[in-house]
Amino acid sequence: MLFLFYFIIRIYSWTFRLHIENEKEWMDHLKGGGSILLCCWHQQFFSAIRHFKSYESLQPSLMISKSKDGDIIAKIAEYSGWTIVRGSSSKGGVEALKGMIERLEQTRLAGHIVDGPRGPSGVVKAGVISIARATHARIVPC
Length: 142
Description:
By secondary structure, this protein is α/β, with parallel strands linked by helices. The protein has one domain: 3-Layer(aba) Sandwich (Cobalt-precorrin-4 Transmethylase, domain 1), CATH 3.40.1010. The chain is built from 6 helices and 5 strands. The protein has a 5-stranded parallel sheet with strand order 3-2-4-1-5, sandwiched between helices. α4 links the parallel β2 and β3. It is globular. It starts with a helix and ends with a strand.
C-alpha cells in the first residue's frame, strides 16, 4: 500500500516546477572527498522527493522521527533510495544523532530536516550544527 502511495507522490511531483541551483558546486565538493549535509524545512521536504531519487546511488541518509507519521515518511524515503536513521529531538535523539554522524562519515551525503518534528516551524534546531561539526560537512540548504 505504501509503495502505491509513493508512486502517486512521484507522479504528482512531476507537476511541480523545480529549479536546482548550485548543485554542481556541492557535488564537486562531494566528488573531491568532502561531505555534504542537505537541509530543508518540513514544509519543503515533500516537493523535493522527486529530485532526491537522483541521489540514490550515493547512498544518502536521512533522520526521520519515530512517530507514526515518521513510519510513512521513512518508507517513502527508503523507496527513494535513502537510508533512514530513526529518531528525533523528542524521541531517540542521541542514538539518531550518532547514527547520522556515522552514516555521513561513511557515505559523505545526508539530509536533515532542520526545524525538527515539533517545531516551531522555520526555526533551526541544534542537531544540524552538531552533525555538520562532527563530520566537517558543508551545510547545503534545499
